Inverse folding.
């Protein structure tokens, strides 16, 4: 019986993937290749400082464009919307085009909410990687859980930077792939979610508004 | 010469009866016919859907499941037992269980491989399972939107458009590995139907291995239980040898059933011994020559032999509860022996025949009316009630016959009682006290029954085993069971009927619980109507593959990426024969292995589908939906409630028969005096339970009937003595005390229903004794006297 739910759990992975890939900013000359692995507590003080800066940003609101690449598709599928991130409440992606929907990812799992406000809750499945638990730390740039779950590679090119998160667990790698976050100074500009060259999701973020506060109505509509 | 003749004849008759009884038990292979299976308490022909379902579940694979959990033993184990150690323990357990031969299937469910296997199976059979409903839905859209368009081209265009739209949904990324083989979106649609259902086995930080095993033997039979226990012991040994820090825990119906059997068997022997001892203690303490009281023991044994033989002769299988309840016969069967043995001769040297002739009327009046009353229970639908009826009737007749025959052999068939057993003190204070007590009893009898509540639960038939049940709950929660869910079983005589009922049930459920998700393996299957329409839907789809290729290209897809789908589709479309829906479902049910195979059953003449709903409790489905909730199945309350009503009807009929006999024998006025004692005692017992707020069940009712019959004995014996101008014999007190003692023992049984029966009879007997003692005392009739005739 539970095995049938395996299929439905794919929804969780999918939605989380889409959710994660939505934290980016404008185009910039980012490093084209992954850098060396960053060792927690090692000499890469620059990246650790970057992580601290990004982690300290607090709530974020940004418009995004998402490109989904499928192996059976000649061109990517393009979606647009606005992203809200709260370190306490998790990530909320409000898709506006081509149709409206909301994906919420937090430590409790995932919620898919359609335009009418009808929610579908997807719980954690112990037989599958805890996508929320793995990916939310990336959004928060929390060093400890990040280094525990991923091999972290960093590359710098002037103010532009690139960090690649390679899952330590084969199971997570199978479902999630490598997550690449690119940005400039203290701003995230692009996130790539890559399983292969033909299976990936790219998220391009417009310059985000940081330090925003979400009102009660907004919290109710866009978070759990 | 006459005495010798009587003795010899009585001896021969007794010997012949014993030989007949022992022979019957031997020929009928009595030990093999004693059942501990709770299902033997209810009729095999029972048509109630709950019972048919329970019978199927108990006899089917579901009852044979054993759940096993391997985990580090304590904190030390957690430290010592690393992943490789647990894997070694798992391999050792699986190998041992498979080698034991006790299981036909052993699956490690925590590894994820089982789920993948099942997912692969659903994928491989996706066209059969999900294709018919897909085509039917599109067919209706086609008829509504563009009936003039060619079906194949329209379907291809609609398929490509749906697929393109789907890619914009969040879940599309997760399904991307499947979509090239499933552009019809059969599996995503299935996942959407199933999603939202909380399926989270208890999370834990500690590593563990969950193993699901299916036993070969029946969990309700001793052989099946022994093989599983031996296999589990072997597995535990090998697990500990492979990884000593591992704890193996397991549960299953087999474990609970074995525990229940052991408990009931132990209750059976203990209660019978205690009951016998209690009766003996009462008798020995009340007579002057205790050693002679042992002469009563054979009557009890004859009575038990008669009861056992009759019940074994009348029924193929007899539930052990009948014998536990049967221990009451110790207290009842001694009644007649006491009545004869404690009656002093009317004159010195009174021949035994004369004594029997003098006592025969009350003896026959009491025993035959009771037997007549209990015979009405033979009309019950419930085997247990019929078995109790036969057991008690045969036991009482045997007791009466053996008492008459046994004392014919005794030289001096009279046993003198101690003075206190015959004492009848009287004073003004006692008279006032007696009136007060009778007044209170009358108030309880009149007011208390209105406060009664009834609750029947099949679980009361077993002795609670809290530790095992807690272990079972914990293991089941590890395997994903939750108290927040309700399981529904939708049944039908054929897969077609069951699937049709399931469709109606799911509609009902959606209306009743609009916010609750449901998960049903049956819902994966097409309805029979949709299955039957499939050939017509496929008829015009010969060019579907090329049509789809063109449509995909128009919608921005690479058609060559869908080559595997084209191949699978053509193979399915051209290869499927004219399989009937029933055959298809039975075939599918046979293909599903492991835990998922328990979600449906299509063996024999009952087919059912399991539906899990994400809510607990709520409205129960109407009978027309042919669906039962797990709450109904666990309690069988409705069914047992019906049986209680049936037993109440029969008991009332039996009581009426007894009443008629009493009135026929003693006339209206005296008959009313006799009949008032059992009826009043019964009402008092009901009233007492009502005031105590103790819910009653079917077994309280049976106990009440038995109590009424026994109370009726005392009323007759008392009235007969008074009619002869004598003080009622002490045998009435001693009999009542014996009966109260033997039933009082039952009241302490660990089996709730046996305890219910014992407590009810004890209260009625004591109330009846109080009535026959206090009645004359309150009127100042008895006098402080010891009946001289008794000496």
């Amino acid at each position: 019986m539970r095995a049938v739910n395996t299929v439905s759990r794919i929804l969780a992975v999918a939605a989380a993937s889409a959710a994660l890939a939505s934290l980016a900013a404008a185009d910039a000359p980012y490093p084209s290749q992954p850098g060396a692995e960053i060792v927690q507590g090692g000499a890469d003080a620059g990246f650790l400082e970057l992580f601290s800066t990004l982690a300290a940003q607090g709530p974020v609101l940004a418009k995004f464009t998402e490109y989904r690449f499928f192996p059976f598709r000649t061109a990517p599928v393009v979606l647009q919307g606005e992203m809200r991130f709260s370190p306490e409440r998790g990530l909320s992606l409000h898709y506006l085009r081509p149709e409206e929907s909301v994906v919420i990812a937090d430590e409790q799992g995932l919620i898919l909410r359609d335009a009418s406000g009808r929610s579908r809750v997807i719980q954690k499945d112990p037989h599958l990687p805890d996508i929320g638990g793995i990916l939310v730390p990336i959004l928060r740039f929390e060093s400890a859980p990040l280094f525990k779950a991923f091999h972290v590679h960093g590359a710098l090119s002037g103010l532009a930077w690139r960090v690649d998160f390679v899952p330590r667990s084969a199971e997570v790698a199978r479902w999630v792939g490598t997550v690449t976050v690119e940005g400039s100074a203290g701003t995230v500009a692009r996130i790539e979610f890559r399983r292969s060259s033909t299976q990936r999701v790219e998220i391009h973020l417009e310059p985000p508004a940081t330090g925003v506060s979400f009102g009660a109505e907004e919290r109710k509509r866009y978070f759990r | 010469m006459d005495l010798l003749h009587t003795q010899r004849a009585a001896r021969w008759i007794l010997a012949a009866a014993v030989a007949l009884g022992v022979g019957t038990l031997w020929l009928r292979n009595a030990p093999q016919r004693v059942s501990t299976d709770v299902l033997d308490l209810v009729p095999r022909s029972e048509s109630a859907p709950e019972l048919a379902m329970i019978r199927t579940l108990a006899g089917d694979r579901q009852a044979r499941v054993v759940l096993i959990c391997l985990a580090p033993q304590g904190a030390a184990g957690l430290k010592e037992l690393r992943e490789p150690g647990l894997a070694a323990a798992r391999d050792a357990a699986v190998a041992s269980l498979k080698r034991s031969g006790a299981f036909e299937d052993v699956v490690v469910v925590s590894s994820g491989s089982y789920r993948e296997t099942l997912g692969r199976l659903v994928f491989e059979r996706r066209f059969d399972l999900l294709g018919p409903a897909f085509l039917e839905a599109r067919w209706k859209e086609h008829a509504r939107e563009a009936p003039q368009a060619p079906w194949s081209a329209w379907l291809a265009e609609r398929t490509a458009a749906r697929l393109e739209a789907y890619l914009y949904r969040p879940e599309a990324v997760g399904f991307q590995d499947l979509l090239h083989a499933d552009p019809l979106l059969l599996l995503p649609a299935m996942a959407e139907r199933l999603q939202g259902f909380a399926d989270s086995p208890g999370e834990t930080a500690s590593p563990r291995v969950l193993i699901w095993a299916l036993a070969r033997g029946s969990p309700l039979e001793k052989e099946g239980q022994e093989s599983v226990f031996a296999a589990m012991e072997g597995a535990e040994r090998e697990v500990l040898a492979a990884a000593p820090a591992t704890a193996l825990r397991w549960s299953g119906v087999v474990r609970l059933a074995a525990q229940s059997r052991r408990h009931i068997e132990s209750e059976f022997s203990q209660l019978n011994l205690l009951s016998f001892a209690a009766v003996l203690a009462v008798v020995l303490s009340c007579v002057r020559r205790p050693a002679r009281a042992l002469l009563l023991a054979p009557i009890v044994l004859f009575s038990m032999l008669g009861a056992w033989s009759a019940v074994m002769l009348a029924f193929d299988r007899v539930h052990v509860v009948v014998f536990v309840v049967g221990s009451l016969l110790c207290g009842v069967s001694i009644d007649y022996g006491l009545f004869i043995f404690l009656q002093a001769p009317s004159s010195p040297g009174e021949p035994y025949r004369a004594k029997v002739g003098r006592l025969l009327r009350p003896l026959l009046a009491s025993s035959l009316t009771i037997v007549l009353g209990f015979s009405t229970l033979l009309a019950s639908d419930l085997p247990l009630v019929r078995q109790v009826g036969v057991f008690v009737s045969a036991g009482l007749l045997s007791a009466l016959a053996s008492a008459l025959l046994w004392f014919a052999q005794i030289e001096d068939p009279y046993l003198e009682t101690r003075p206190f057993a015959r004492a009848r003190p009287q004073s003004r204070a006692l008279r006032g006290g007696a009136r007060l007590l009778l007044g209170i009893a009358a108030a309880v009898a009149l007011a208390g029954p209105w406060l009664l509540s009834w609750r029947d639960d099949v679980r009361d038939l077993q002795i609670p085993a809290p530790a095992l049940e807690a272990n079972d709950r914990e293991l089941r929660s590890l395997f994903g069971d939750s108290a927040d869910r309700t399981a529904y079983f939708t049944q039908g005589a054929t897969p077609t009927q069951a699937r049709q009922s399931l469709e109606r049930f799911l509609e009902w459920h959606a209306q009743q619980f609009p916010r609750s998700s449901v998960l049903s393996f049956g819902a994966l299957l097409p309805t029979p109507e949709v299955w039957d329409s499939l050939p017509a839907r496929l008829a015009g789809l010969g060019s579907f593959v090329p049509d789809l290729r063109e449509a995909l290209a128009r919608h921005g897809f690479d058609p060559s990426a869908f080559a595997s789908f084209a191949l699978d589709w053509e193979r399915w479309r051209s290869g499927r024969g004219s399989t009937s829906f029933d055959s298809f479902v039975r075939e599918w049910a046979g293909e599903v292995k492991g835990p998922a195979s328990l979600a449906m059953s299509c063996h024999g003449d009952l087919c059912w589908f399991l539906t899990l709903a994400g809510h607990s409790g709520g409205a129960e489905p109407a009978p027309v939906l042919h669906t039962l909730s797990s709450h109904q199945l666990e309690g069988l309350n409705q069914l047992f409630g019906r049986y209680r009503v049936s037993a109440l009807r029969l008991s009332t009929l039996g009581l009426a028969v007894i009443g008629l006999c009493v009135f026929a024998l003693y006339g209206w006025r005296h008959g009313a005096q006799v009949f008032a004692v059992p009826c009043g005692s019964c009402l008092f017992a009901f009233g007492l339970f009502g005031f105590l707020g103790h819910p009653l069940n079917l077994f309280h009712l049976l106990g009440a009937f038995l109590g009424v019959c026994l109370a009726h004995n005392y009323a007759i014996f008392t009235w007969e003595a008074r009619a002869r101008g004598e003080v009622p014999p002490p045998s009435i007190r001693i009999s009542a005390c014996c009966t109260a003692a033997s039933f009082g023992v039952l009241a302490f049984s660990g089996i709730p229903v046996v305890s219910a029966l014992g407590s009810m009879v004890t209260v009625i007997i004591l109330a009846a004794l109080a009535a026959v003692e206090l009645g004359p005392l309150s009127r100042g009739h008895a006098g402080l006297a010891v009946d001289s005739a008794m000496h």
Summary: The CA atoms of residues 707 and 761 of chain B lie 5 Å apart. The mean pLDDT of chain B is 81. Chain B touches chain A through 48 residues (CB under 8 Å).
